[in-house]
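Input chain follows. Return structure tokens only.
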Amino acid sequence: MKVPPGSGAKVQPRTFFLNEKQELASFDRDGGGGQADYVPIDWSARSAGLSASFRRATTPPARSADPSVGRHFFVVAVPVHAVQKRSQAKTVPGGIKYEAPAFGGEQSHLFRKLGMDLIETLPGGKAAVHVLSTRTEQLLSTIASLPGASSREKARWINFETFEPLDWTARVSMAWVETLHPGAVVEVVIRFQPALTRLEVNDVLQSMARVLDDKHSRLTKAGREFSGRYWCAGFLTREFILAVAREFSSVQSIHPPIRSPVAMARKGRRPLAPGASVAASNLPTLPPSELPTVAIVDCGIPEKHVHLAPYRRSGFRNPDIDPIYPYLGSHGSHVASCAVFGRLNMNGGIQPPPPGRCRVIDVMVAHDAGFINSDLVVPAMDAIVGTAPDVRVFNLSVGSAPLDTLDPVTRREHLMKLQDLDNFAFARDVLLVIAAGNSTPGLSPKEAYPNHVDDPRWGLGFEARTFNGIVSGAYVDVLVPDSVAGIVGAPSPFTRIGPGLCGSPVPGFSAPGGDCSEGYAWAPGTGPWVCDAEGNWEDSNGTSLAAPLVAREAAWVIKDLAQHCAPTVAPFSSTVKAWLNLVAQRPRLPGAFERLAQRTLGKGFPTAERLRAPIEHSAVFVWQTMLQAAKSINRAQFPVPAEWLRKASTPTLRIVCAWSTPVNSALVDSWACRKVSLRVRPFGGEAALRGGGNASGAYPLIDRLLDISPKVLEEKGIVAADGLWIIEVEYEEIGAYPPAMTVSAQQRVGVVFELFDAGENATSPQAAIQALPVAMDMLRLSVLQQPIQAPIVIRT
């Protein structure tokens, strides 16, 4: 949006908040299209093949140490190559359309309807599914009756070709096992199938204990993930690992512990010198007790830190770490100092830091000074939510290995960790801010920077592929000789590269993180200055330092939005995400730099400042609403003054809609289980504006830019009038939920939109809007009319 030197009448600009006075009655959309017209197949042959293969796949072994074998079957559903549908579309040759089944997408709902649970999507479009033994005879009877069944029942089965047993090698990476020495004991985690109940897992654990080699292997702990899946861990021999993989079908995965490296490895120290200047912050200066808080999920912050102590709150610590080690290394202090003091520049010499603009709560989940224990992250954050509910922003400056470089079993478990992170963010309505991660120090790309966009070694780890959190890359904001990037605003050469899952547009944001030397090592003078655990100031680089700069802005957005909420209402995390997307900015770069920036820097650096100091040349509206069920439509009215439309040279509406969605790692086509849609109806009419969208698949963000000039509206059959405009949101369920979860039908949605004149001689809409009587009612966000249900309930 351009900011011209002059624009219309002068009024004090303000932000407008939609509430129940602007909201219209909700209503349910009529469902469903007609049933697909499939080309007939030989249902007798299909039924016979399905029956025989299903019976083979669900025949229990003659002998097994697994006590769950007689109650649960885990089998592979194999899809047909393609289904044939008749189509009247002119673009379909011969009137026959061929569609490959999508068990990880559109067809994921089928399994629950058929009495199965979708566990995982496998290569080749196959799916691992769970079937209770009590359902097998009913399913076999249904399959046998398919030749004479209704068209609706046949439509449920037409995508299935056959069933197969689930091979035991899917439970463990044989490449990893082959690296283990016979008889050697290694630390191992065993993850059980998500369909097992607590009592059944207890039976399996007792059975495992009976066959353990007492001299070597032992199980030491057990627990349950946020998604409801049980696990145990211990020290096992190679032989016992293979025995469990072969014998226990109740086990989904056996793997070494997942420990994510912290996302910063480049640093140095400068000598003390006087006379430095420190970059100023646009955030307010307040007493520490009044500052917003960011949770630093990391390796710990010293309780009596010389600079951070006034801003530090105690939170959680890894119970497995000896209490004599209150923190491990300096990474937690580095990250916390960025959250507290912002981006400091002490290249000219070191001086005392400015007043802190943010507090931090210490969430210590370290395994050691360089790695965090990924199994602790969600339980630790959940403990903070329960004990410090004012903490809504969690910073994770970690960077696990590029997801697409992992073996299938490890990749699956990393995705299960991401599933827990995203579902935690949905259930607790918190905002996760995650570093994009760094490339390996000293590793040069195969194609020289900035043309290394497709180098898999620069791919994102699992944490940075979040749907419900936000991801920050890093850029260069200080130039020094002999560095790689050499352009202000260019992506840091070490910052990892998107896209995320299902082509999602992550990283979505960025902040200063520094450059690196021509050997891809630390480049002095280019990154933020941070303090180590002893209070020494260091010049460091990394996306670890970019993420907390974004996190503290998000914490301030929550604090400032809360000033416009009733006492019983809090800003949704989705409303905060929508705001950050609206206000983030970055410069456009030349050539290949811009191509790289689009996949590393997102929309740039976001700020909270415009909530406290709205800009004169635009009008921003904020709305948050709770949808009660799928296909239920919530609506609100907002003014677009006809007078301003006529005066503005290029009146423009930018609208950003964000939400958090339940996710399922089995949904390889969408990741998300829900998708929100949005419509804008000018002047309260029936016609809705189309186009201008910037949505990516099922990623929970819509960003549209619409030309709303009278001429353009007339071309779309919309006649300008004086009526209020209407915005509508609804959601649909696009994929199955994880098998152990019951998910509430309620859905939070946050919408932030902006009116401005994109022309050279722009006219501000502020005066025209504030002159309307309705403006006096747009001072706060809505009070929720329905009680909030538990978003996720885990079946036991």
